Known about the structure:
This protein is mostly beta strands.
Amino acid sequence: MIFAICECGLSTEPHQAAAYTLQGFEVSGRKVMKFHMRNATASKAALSLAMVSAMFASPAIAQDADSAEAEDPNIIIVTAQRSSQNIQDVPVSLTAVTADTLADRNINSASEIFLAAPTVQISGFNNNVSVRGIGTLAITPTVESSVGFAVDDVNVGRTALALGAFDDVERVEVLNGPQGLLFGKNSSAGLLNIVTRRPELGEFGGFASAELNLRDTTPDDGFGVVLRGTVNAPLGDKAALRINTRYTHQDGIVEDIGTGLSDNKKEDWGIRGKLLVEPSDNLEIYVIGEYAETNGTFLDSYRLADPAGRVVDQITAAGITAGPENLFIAQNARTFRETQISSIQGTIAYTLPNDWQIINVAAYKNLKINSNLDSDRTTGAYLDNNQIDSDFSQFSNELRLSIPDSNRVHGQLGLYYYQADETDDRLLGGFQNLPAPVRPGFPFCINPPVVSPGPPPNCNVSNDFFIGRDTSTDFTVKSYAAFGQLNFDVTDALTLIAGARVTRDKIDITSVQQQQFNYFVPIADPGTFVEEASNTNFSYKLGAQYDVNDDIMFYGYYATGYKGPAFNDVFVSTVPNQVAPETAETFELGFKSSFADNAVIFNLSAFLTKYDDYQAQSFNVNFNTFLLQNAGSLESKGIEAQLTLRPVEGLTISANASLLDSVYTEFLGAECYPAQPGCGPNNTFDASGQPLPASANFTSTIQGIYEFPVSDALDGFVSANWYHRSSLNFDVSNNPTTAIPTADYIGASIGVESEAVRVSLFCRNCFNQVRPTGVTIWAGDAAQRGVSSTFQNWDLNSVRNWGASVRVKF
């Protein structure tokens, strides 16, 4: 094999699609080459974009002199798992989506990464993420995601801190299976690691890009624009500053034909500054600061309005026919979402005389969300207030010792501290479409003109809503951990792998319920609830890697994973509020192979993961709310395959597939869906043998790119891709009304590129296969009529998108 190290993780070929398996450790005992790749598309807000454009006359900065791109375009290397690695020489299943792939597929945010990484599913209103069929389909803020996120070496406690618009992204890595031995925060199912480009010392340059997209099959012919820009400026010989800015606007998929008060769009802007200082050869200081805002949200639409339900009359009166391709909604209350993100982080890395490295990463991040949802999604005054005002902050510090692969024993050791604090104020309230004239009178007594004691019809209380609840929650999580993974090179061919982690979690929660408003029908217990939970966990990994020769490698490992305890955010006196920790154990076997100077790459892995006390959420009809609970156990097993072919010069074909079987092996007491056959008297059933929600049996993606010279200074390219996913169900109880069929998205692009300019035309979901990202039952019809009316969530890829993009480097 030929090996190299890339500091940017991009493909060596322009526009090359990449979905590679990578993991682990320093390249040992082999020739290593270092190169820089073509800059990824970066981002900048419209105001700053104009400033960048004025600089286009500046001379272009040449690529780093040690670039290996000209030496061998088939060399593919990345950095992952905190060390430099060759893709084909790391013993774990992992998909890397490079900046070129993001540009070729016009993927503009982490919520779209599933199009290039088949082991990932992103679904629902809250962008719930699952890997290998395992995720956390929950809307409560008091539970961690089973899939973790890291951005520039910092694990984030809320997915909203990572799922915004991409901004100068170098690559996205999807690590499959339990994590925690090499990254600070543990996760039980997987990790999405987002890496942005670092400042470049001694170079002035940058780039600006613009994308325009249209959705001609939506009711109002939706429109979108994505503007990005980056400036890299040297500050002397030993420091550099890199500024990223972005602005995006996307019209909604669904049209609101009601009052039109909703913010039916997504608008995002942000700025990030990165300062790199290398005062000496063995010391590096890296500081990143960021601020971003996102406004608006995509509206939902009704997929099914049960004839026996309450919302069907409102939907019909508005002229809407519920169905799988319904893109209309009629609401009377405002739906909006406002998000603010701010963060600061600093990394200090010191290299010892023996090349061991000490790294400390400290970070503070803050997330504020203010939103309201018209929960009934109709013009009726059923449940118009679903307000959230939350303030989440986290501090983390990670201290690591990196032992280079020049030693026979090499790897990482670390200490980690994480604290998250959240204040969460929520109001759920409505009038159940009760006519306004009768609300003030007895027995409802909603804002009566006079409150007076005495028997009916006097009102001795003044209610604010017919039904509802209010909660004010303070939530604190503290996590301490010691972790590490070491590799022992027994021979040139055999490496043994061992790692371990000790985690101590402590959670405190105070919830004040039903103290702000009065309700004719309260749906939470009043009072102040104070609880705490703590747990200590030991997880570990044992494995081995065997290189048959320079082209074929086999590996295998056994590992355990862990996710800490949690609480329901609505306290119910008759239901346990604390949820036990979630644990996992994984077996994985695989091999990786490459032939003909990497013209053919084929990787295959098989895995079996077993979970105990899996944290699942389902709708509880008796309490008219979603409750978190522990499923007894579940099992996820499957096969993952990756193939890259370069049959002729200029042509690259990449394919990636996942075959998956994820089921509950034991889940007594699962909540029934409305009118479920065979449901027990306490509205529960045995879900053992049921498939997991948002878990597709088969997912695949294939992309072909052909590049050809147009002139001495200009190259042309043609690209096509196909994403396939089998049917999904989004409910723990496998409710037939929350299922969606197979999805097949075809994408394509065509364009030209020079050293300074790239122009392309593209389409996503070219044949307009209309598919939602999630389906949820409407709680009102479920609780009051015992039927499953459902609404569906949408994203940009749910319908056809076509447009043009341009990128200019300077």
